[in-house]
Amino acid sequence: MNPAVETYPPDVRPPSLPPVHSVKLTVNGKDTELQISPWTTLLDALREYMDLTGTKKGCDHGQCGACTVLINGKRINSCLTLAIMQEGAQITTIEGIAPTEGNASQLHPLQKAFIEHDAFQCGYCTPGQICSAVGLMNEGKAKTTADIKELMSGNICRCGAYTNIVDAIEDVMNQKNA
Amino acid sequence: MSTPLVTNTIGKPINRVDGVEKVTGKAKYAAEFNVPDLAYGVVISSAITKGKIKSFDASDALSLEGVLQVFTHENRPKLAWFDISYKDQDAPPGAPFRPLHNATIKYSGQPIALVVAETFELARYAATLVRVEYEELTHETDLEANLHKARKPKHGVADLLKPPPPKPRGDFDRVYAEDPNKVAGRYVHSAEHHNPMELFATTVSYEKNGKLTIYDKTQGVTNSILYVTQVFNIPFSDVRVLSPYMGGGFGSGLRPQYQLFMAVMAARELKRSVRVSLTRQQMFTFGHRPATVQQVALGALADGSMNALYHDAMSETSKFEDYTEVVVNWGGQLYPPENVTLDYKLVPLDVYSPLDMRAPGGVTGMSALEVAMDELAYNLGMDPLQLRLKNYTDHDYNQNKPYSSKELRECYRQGAERFGWPSRNMEPRSMKKDHNLIGWGMATGMWEANQMPARAEAVLMVNGKLRVSSATADIGTGTYTIMTQIAADTLGLPISDVLFKLGDTDMPVAPISGGSWTAATVGTAVQTVCQEVGKSLLKLAKNMPDSLFKGAKWEDITFSDKHMRLKNDPNVAVSLQTLVDLNGGKAVRETSTGLPNALKQRNFSRATHSAVFVEVMVDEDLGTVKVTRAVTAVAGGRILNPKTARSQILGGMVWGLSKALEEESVMDHNFGRFMNHNLAEYHVAVNADIHDLDVIFVEEHDDVVNPLGVKGLGEIGIVGMPAAIANAIFHATGRRVRDLPIRLDALL
């Protein structure tokens, strides 16, 4: 076979860079103004510009759920939305889900249940799992264990803590219903 | 009312000590140290599989304001000359891959350039503008098509941990030919990738004096610092590597990956702090469980006694290193046939070197062997569990040594009882519910119980609290928690008075965290160093005026409830606080090494065992498989923390299910590239795939493996699971599937 020569990518002149914009975000109840390019994802805005690294990057393609945050109480993959699209929205990350009393922040019941049920190992998917579970409970659609499993399947846990994750979520749902 | 202090914490199901950090998002992983003035690097991957880079054109990228540099083999700094400098603690025999070494392309996705810019967004964009001209050569990536090139692996230090197959014993060919009952089969599985949730990343903080503080995703900071100091020829004193948290390893972090090289190179050249994170696609470009083709043949007499075993394997490796794993040895260790032939060969291909992935070799080989055992049981008309019991042995005939402990028989008994195995009807297709066929299968698991040398430091501080450290890793395994328990238990302190730190090259050295040896290895070091502190405290106690400990020897004392006590009169006690107060205002500090007791260990074979029982439901119309329940009974020595231990086994079971039914890196041999290089197309088990999982730890005492009697649990959970699932599928459907993963097309 003859050696083939190819060039990648094809020779096309690049467009000029998009300008930096001022973007106002409301994260965990706090207003922040960022100077970022419009192609900055919400995930990168949180992690790289606001030092809110609790929200994780696992694939950057909406395939793993590690970057799950809450937008106006609904769960969303923060890698699949641009920061600029979320101006005016209430963004809640893992750093903001715990109730605060005075200055002391406590743990959210799901955070406590995740610890109690050992619902994580390496901890990398955990913030996404917990935010996703908060979103799941807000949605109110999960009535059975099978529902929880199905509706939590957008959050991959490579360590395989699934049974413990379901136990933790059911525990909190039962507390709420009790 | 105060509750009594609990200080005998080994064996208690305490919550993870790092739990709060992990559930609040405070735990920081390698890409999360946002040091000031940080630049971002994005790696460009080769678009071809084999050939040469003819030229780069980075002019468009470099013309963008904010792009700092495009590094390639043409402008990289001078690096170490010899292969030895690039060898890491897990390097197989051969010449390690060197990033940006020269124009040669050795595999698809090879890192060929690093674009560094002021922001991540800009670096990512600029990377798309770098034009690369290649000269492409024909590649070979197909294992099946190249089996005729299989050859014996090169030998190296890796053989110590991965022994080649033993010489044949007896006469397999003759005995097998005459056996009344025999089975033979060919077993194939494709490559798999670790895919920990955290992307590989390194943040290099460039300090004012030019020193480097490196936050790396690694299963061993010592491995990373050795690599960096040797490759870049930097003194140890100028580098510090930290890895307090790691978002999953599973073997992928046993070698320094190329983002470490890239980030360090860029930081040194630009004299700036740099972060390099890989993409999920690039997570498929540095090592994988190798595609493997195996053949297994078993022969037995009419009563089920196995007398002949044949197992060979041919695995892919790269063209630059001979990655090996122990695939075929297990049957010779687990069962007693007198006529055994085992063989293992490699087929070098144009791929990256394979890399240890959870139970490397073990889950590969046992997935074939234990399916063959099931087949043999059916051939004999014997219950598969009875066949295992008929061929049970406490002796490892490969090494010709007894096991230091082997409570596998108890695993079989308790697992079978919990699962309800005795009520099984052996007939395939005998259980059905609606349109689902139901099947029950079982298999055995086995993994080695190793211990390495490691060092640890313990400091009883002036406030009476204990700080212990070792440069090991917690890759989600629970190292932080169990080491805290061991330290607390040894010196009679509550968990809250002990702080265990890890993942920092300023700490005493520990080996890479893999092979299920961390609990045994670092646990022994932590126990030893805490005992050293205890001995120093005894000296202080003896020097007290009118001391009741005057004549006491180390053997005579015990620690509990924050006190040192006489064993035979626990009321004679002195608090640790009182003792440290006697140390002239200084903390009591000790550093020591935990060494394997080789003299004791060498007379025994040491291993962990498991028995796995699985129920599947197979949709008769659609061929879909659901693992409705599974029980794993483990003989893993002493269980330090039943809660974290259970989680490790659950995780292994999920991995086993995922391997059996889902995981496969699909190579398009026209391109020589893994095509499903993302988490949408590389399927791993998700929540909806996992149902009732049950874990049993049987009691097992072993004072040979190490003083703690712990064997390690990282791998054993996965090993028996795929075969148990395949066997359950046979029971459900009557189809014997020998290739993994078992997809619905095999069952329609």
TrEMBL record, chain A:
- Which InterPro entries does its entry note? 2Fe-2S-bd, 2Fe-2S-bd_dom_sf, 2Fe-2S_ferredoxin-like_sf, 2Fe-2S_ferredoxin-type, 2Fe2S_fd_BS, Aldehyde_Oxdr_Iron-Sulfur, Beta-grasp_dom_sf
Q: Which PROSITE patterns match?
A: 2FE2S_FER_1, 2FE2S_FER_2
Q: Does the keyword S-adenosyl-L-methionine apply?
A: no
Please provide the record's keywords in A-Z order: 2Fe-2S, Iron, Iron-sulfur, Metal-binding, Oxidoreductase
* Gene3D superfamilies noted in UniProt: 3.10.20.30, [2Fe-2S]-binding domain (1.10.150.120)
- The reply to whether Plastid figures as a keyword in the UniProt entry is no
2Fe-2S ferredoxin-type domain boundaries: 21-97
Tell me the superkingdom of the source: Bacteria
**SUPFAM superfamilies recorded for this chain?**
2Fe-2S ferredoxin-like, CO dehydrogenase ISP C-domain like
Per its record, what are the GO molecular function terms?
Answer: 2 iron, 2 sulfur cluster binding; metal ion binding; oxidoreductase activity, acting on the aldehyde or oxo group of donors
Q: Which PANTHER family does this chain map to?
A: OXIDOREDUCTASE WITH IRON-SULFUR SUBUNIT (PTHR45331:SF2), OXIDOREDUCTASE, IRON-SULPHUR BINDING SUBUNIT-RELATED-RELATED (PTHR45331)
The protein in question is named Xanthine dehydrogenase YagT iron-sulfur-binding subunit
From TrEMBL, chain B:
Q: Where is this region: Disordered?
A: 154-173
Q: Where's the Aldehyde oxidase/xanthine dehydrogenase a/b hammerhead domain?
A: 24-138
Gene3D superfamilies in the cross-refs: Aldehyde oxidase/xanthine dehydrogenase, a/b hammerhead (3.90.1170.50), Aldehyde oxidase/xanthine dehydrogenase, molybdopterin binding domain (3.30.365.10)
Note the Pfam families from the entry: Ald_Xan_dh_C (PF01315), MoCoBD_1 (PF02738), MoCoBD_2 (PF20256)
Kindly give the InterPro entries that the UniProt entry links to this protein. Ald_Oxase/Xan_DH_a/b, Ald_Oxase/Xan_DH_a/b_sf, Ald_Oxase/xanthine_DH-like, AldOxase/xan_DH_MoCoBD1, AldOxase/xan_DH_MoCoBD2, AldOxase/xan_DH_Mopterin-bd_sf
A single GO molecular function, which one? oxidoreductase activity
Q: What is this protein called?
A: Xanthine dehydrogenase YagR molybdenum-binding subunit
Q: Which organism is it from?
A: Spirosoma fluviale
